[in-house]
Amino acid sequence: MPEVSAELESVLAKLRACAAAPLERATAMPPELYSSAALYAHEQKEIFAKEWLSPGRAADIPNPGDYLSFAINDQPVFCIRGDDGQIRSFSNVCLHRMMRLVDGKGHCTRIVCPYHAWTYDNGGHLLAAPHMKKSPGFNPRDHRLPEIRTELWEGWIYITLNNQAPKVADLLAPLLPVVERYRMADYVHCATEDFVWNTNWKLLTENFMEGYHLPVAHKKTVGAWFPAEETGFPEQRFDAFTYQTFIKDQTAKYGLAHASNTRLTDRWRYTSVMPTVFPTHMYVLAPDHLWYLSLRPKSLGEVHLRFGYALAPEVYESLEDRDSFIAETNAFFDRVNDEDRMVTEGIYLGSRAPLAKGGRLSWLEREIHDFMQYLLRRLDTGETESQARPKLSVAR
Fold first, then answer.
1. Helix locations, the chain, DSSP H
2. Are 361 and 25 in contact (CB under 8 A)?
3. Which fold would CATH assign to domain 6-49+174-379?
4. How far apart are CA 212 and CA 222, in angstroms?
5. Which residues partner with 66 through β-bridges?
6. Across the chain, what does the average pLDDT equal?
7. What is the arithmetic mean of pLDDT over 146-163?
8. Structural domain boundaries of the chain?
9. Is pLDDT of 391 > 80?
10. Can you state the percent helix, strand and coil of the chain, rounding each to 5?
11. 255 pLDDT exceeds 90?
12. In terms of pTM, does the model score above 0.85?
């Protein structure tokens, strides 16, 4: 086993203590969990290099040649829909001089390196390399971009560098009965945006997965429609994800089933599901819309955030002025994101204060307790054998 630094072992010992406490006596994680460079390096190796991450939805790249870019640690990646309709992912680094090939999201019939015009098809094969005919033995057909393992689940794209990782469908099988009634793969793509926020990735993940802050931090937007006491959690805990459900009252502008929605019945017509697929894919699945965040840390105190949203097909089809509705919805979610940015960047600054410490968790922060146990399962080095790792259990 590689030698573990004193800093890393000290931080992991504090994580063990937090994760071992039952929810009714649990506290937030100590500030060192958000500021330790040793822990951040350990997370890159043990979490981000091994877990499934989501760059977005299959509906974001609907046509052959459509692509979107992402990154796993220092590995740039792009996902592209091939001529056969399949989505594949490749190293976003030219095979010649290691130039990044594409940025953002777009469409291309051929991928042309902006440095020396080495050209690839959307299956990653090198088609042409100008002025290479005098290089003995060089044949473009012998070269292909490294392919990144890619799987689709309920309309989501997942990628990983870990060829040994269990299949996404197996990891998320217990979540399927909860979300499949919505048929979210059919929701119509409306927008995606990319941001960089000055916070630690775990603070942003924790912020998304708890509704405790909604009536306060989001009192001018979504918090006004959130009856906190109606929040529900599954009895069982899961290895790869957690989730909560919540309802919207009849005054809510968003979150209620359209009159022509025939998929949802009874309470599901006003119930939303909010899963967090560890480590950094999270979404709100509502009867009328879907919005999501996908995170990747850029540094200890910076996180790249991809935000996107879609509308249920019957909602989209019913719109008389789609452009105006989508613009208005964009503006609304921008306000929600601004509210979250303010608190998550503020918490990061607060966590670096000498007198900072984590306080008691509310029952509404149950998923933060799930998250810290997930972190320990992935990060524990086993250096302290007397400290048992937390096991999945039925929540009280």
1. 6-20, 32-35, 37-43, 168-171, 176-179, 201-209, 214-217, 313-318, 322-351, 366-379
2. no
3. Naphthalene 1,2-dioxygenase Alpha Subunit; Chain A, domain 1 (3.90.380)
4. 12
5. 107
6. 92
7. 98
8. 6-49+174-379, 53-156
9. no
10. 35, 25, 40
11. no
12. yes
